[in-house]
Design a protein that fits this description.
This protein is 36% helix and 23% strand. With 336 residues, it is α+β, with helices and mostly antiparallel strands. The chain has 2 domains: 3-119, Aminopeptidase; 139-335, Aminopeptidase (3-Layer(aba) Sandwich). A 7-stranded mixed β-sheet has the order 5-6-7-8-9-11-10, sandwiched between helices. The protein has a 4-stranded mixed β-sheet with strand order 1-2-3-4. Helix 7 runs antiparallel to helix 10 (318-324). The structure holds coenzyme A. Coenzyme A binds at residues 39, 43, 159, 259-261, 266-272, 292, 294, 298-300, 302-303. This is N-acetyltransferase domain-containing protein. Keywords: Acyltransferase, Transferase. Residues 1-145, 139-336 form the N-acetyltransferase domain. GO terms for molecular function: acyltransferase activity, transferring groups other than amino-acyl groups. InterPro entries: Acyl_CoA_acyltransferase, GNAT_dom, YpeA/RimI_acetyltransf.
Length: 336
């Protein structure tokens, strides 16, 4: 959709539907379509087609079908593997499995079909312009508070256990948790950077975002670290920080510093909603892009790709291996 299409889209949508359009796919000015990707509770990627409508004067020429096929292509490109749910199809036709092609598309809003589909939990409404992680439901995302210090301290060590093990040694992992917790407890200046995901009342995940010009760092104290980790462990941790904190964040960029979901809560879509929230926060700060570092072998790369991140360049080398334990990293970035 382009600026020149606003009037047309408003008219066509108003003709056919009662609610507002979130996003329009397709350059054709003959029809329009809103769509969104979501992750189901099982973690399978689905695409939800929001509005398919064709101007009355052009109906019956296969334009609606072409738009829905375009949605299928876009959904596949985004890694959707499951189904496309269409709100507006006749009752028996919704829940179209992507490989099949026999669904009769209809541009008519079928309210009954929509209600039944909602009731069966087959489709989920688009998240409108609200803040991801604040809608009613089991998951809430909020800023870090005093009560989260223990959780954040432990989560960051457990989530990045491979890096921590490399830095401090396997036998000192519990010491690393203690040291991290102490450090976050007194580093109130950085709490605003951390968002905590709470699932059914229990802290389940954490994410940190950093913006251009932010220089405040956690209050790392060598003496304290030594008492928990010994000299070698402290030295390892110091160099790990020296490498991972040396990130150049340009104006208009947001850096996704950490993201982790507790192992008990993985695969429920929490990571995805945290990433949606990261996009939202970055846009609020008028960022044009958001980026992160991830180990090339990390399964999370798939999640980032589904969310629209692309690998801008691989990096690593000897210093990366010495400090983080891996020499193969990706810089991934998403345009907002
Ligand atoms: C990556 C992570 C934050 C995703 O959170 P989540 O709530 O499990 O994510 P969702 O349910 O929204 O999405 C599932 C996707 O998460 C990723 N994922 C799931 N378990 C994972 C794990 N143990 N390690 C890494 N990524 C994982 C996968 O990409 C998965 O998609 P797939 O099933 O197609 O492979 C979470 O799994 C995690 O904390 N992993 C360990 C820490 C980590 O690797 N963080 C990223 C560092 S850059």
């Amino acid at each position: 959709m382009e600026a020149q299409d606003v009037e047309f889209v408003s008219r066509v949508v108003a003709e056919g539907f009662f609610y507002s359009l979130e996003h329009v796919v397709g350059k054709s000015r003959l029809g329009c379509m809103g769509w969104a990707l979501r992750t189901s509770r099982l973690g399978t990627a689905e695409c939800f087609v929001d509005k398919v409508c064709v101007a009355t004067e052009y109906r019956g020429r296969g334009i609606g079908k072409a738009l829905v096929e375009r949605a299928e292509t876009a959904a596949r490109e985004r890694g959707c593997t499951c189904k496309i749910s269409l709100l507006f199809l006749h009752l028996l036709a919704y829940g179209h499995e992507m490989p099949q092609k026999h669904v009769q598309y209809s541009c008519t809003l079928h309210l009954l079909g929509a209600l039944v589909a909602f009731a069966r939990g087959r489709i989920t409404p688009l998240r409108k312009s609200g803040t991801p992680g604040t809608e009613p439901g089991p998951l809430q995302i909020r800023n870090m508070e005093e009560q989260d210090v223990d959780f954040v301290g432990r989560m960051l060590v457990e989530t990045f256990s491979d890096k921590f093990e490399h830095a401090v040694g396997k036998s000192r992992m519990e010491g690393a948790v203690q040291q991290n917790t102490k450090m976050y407890g007194r580093s109130k200046d950085v709490w605003h950077r951390y968002l905590v995901a709470v699932y059914e009342g229990r802290p389940a995940g954490v994410m940190a975002l950093k913006f251009h010009g932010e220089t405040t760092e956690v209050d790392f104290q060598c003496g304290e670290a030594c008492s928990y980790l010994g000299c070698c462990g402290t030295c390892g941790l110091f160099w790990l920080g020296a490498y991972t904190e040396n990130v150049n964040i340009r104006a208009g960029q947001c850096y996704l510093d950490h993201i982790g979901v507790d192992a008990d809560f993985r695969g429920k879509g929490i990571g995805k909603i945290l990433l949606d929230r990261a996009d939202f926060e970055a846009r609020q700060r008028e960022c044009k892009s958001i980026f992160l570092w991830v180990k090339q072998s990390n399964r999370a790369v798939r999640l980032y790709e589904r969310q629209g991140y692309v690998v801008t360049h691989p990096f690593g080398g000897c210093f990366a291996r010495c400090t983080t334990g891996s020499s193969e990293w990706y810089n991934m970035e998403k345009q907002l």
